[in-house]
Description:
Structural class: alpha+beta
Amino acid sequence: MWIGSALVLIVLALGSLGLRTGLDDDHLVVGKPGSIAGQDLLAAHYPAGQSRPAQVISRADAAPAIAASLKGIDGIAEVAPAEKSTDGTLAVTRAVLKDSADSEAAARTVDRIRTAVHAVPDADAKVGGPTAMAQEKAEAQAHDRKVVIPLVLAVVFLVLVALLRALVAPLLLMATVVLSYFAALGISRQLFQHVLGFPAVDVQVMLIGFLFLVALGVDYNIFLIHRIREEVGHRGHHAGVLSGLTSTGGVITSAGAVLAATFAALTTAPQVAFIEIGIVVAVGVLIDTFLVRSVLVPALALDVGRRFWWPGRPAATDAAPPATGERLAPAAVPADSGGGRI
C-alpha cells in the first residue's frame, strides 16, 4: 500500500517539471482590465517599454558618459536627456526599452545596461525601473526558497524528534510531507496551464504554498502519530497503529475537507497569485487528508514495525496482531477495584 501510494505521488509530482515562475503584467489579474488594454495599445504604436523605462542613477558629472554608454546597447530604443536632482549631485538617465518591461528580452537588456554603466569610471551608477525591480524580486524569492525551505524542514524535524523521541518516524514523516507538496504542485501546474490558461506561477506561490502545506501537513502528522504512539504503548505496535488511525481518521478527514474548502475560496479572487495559492494549498490538503495520512503513513508504520520508533521504545509490550475479525482484548482493572473487568 505504501509503495503504491508513493508511486502515485511521484507520478503526480512529475507534473511540476518545467514549472515557470513569474507572471507578466497581462496575467496578474483575471480578464483584461483597461490598464492592460491601454498598455497593449501603447506597445502597438510606440516602443513597448515607453511607459516604464529603465532608470540609471549616477553622479551628475558622470551623466554624459552614462548616456553615451546606453546608446550603444542592443534593446534600447531611446535615451532621454539626464535630469539632475534638486541638490545637483545626482542625475537620472532614462532608457526606453524596445521590449515590454516585463518580458525576458527586457530583462536581458537590463543586464546589458548594468554591465555597461558599471564600467563607467567614478559614476557610482545604480540601475532601477520596473524591469530591474522585477528581476531583483525574483532573485530574492529564489534565495528565500533555498534558505527558508531547508530551515523550515529542519525546525519541523526537530519538533517531531522531540515529540516522538524517535529518528526513523520523523524522517519518514518529513519525506511524506515533501512528496505531498510536489504532488500538489504537479497537479496545480497542470490545472494552471491546461484549464485556467496561466502561463506561469507567481514568484510567491512556491514558497507560500510550501509553508502552508508543511504547517498543515505536520499538524496532521502530529495528531495522527502522537495518538498512534499512545495506542502502541497500550496495545502493541500493529494494533496500536490501527487503533490510532481509526480514532483520528474522522477528525482528520473533516478538518482536511474544511481547510481545503476554505483555501479554495481564494479562487474567487481576481488576482491570479491568490487563485494559484488557493489551488495549490487546497489540492495539497486533500492529498494529505485522503492519501498521505489515511494510507501512506499508516502503511509505512505497519511495514517498518517497531523500528518506526527507533531509537525510542514506546510500547511496553508488542502484542501480536489480532486475527481477522477478532476484537482487541479488553483491559483489566486493578485487583483492588473488585476484580471485575471493563
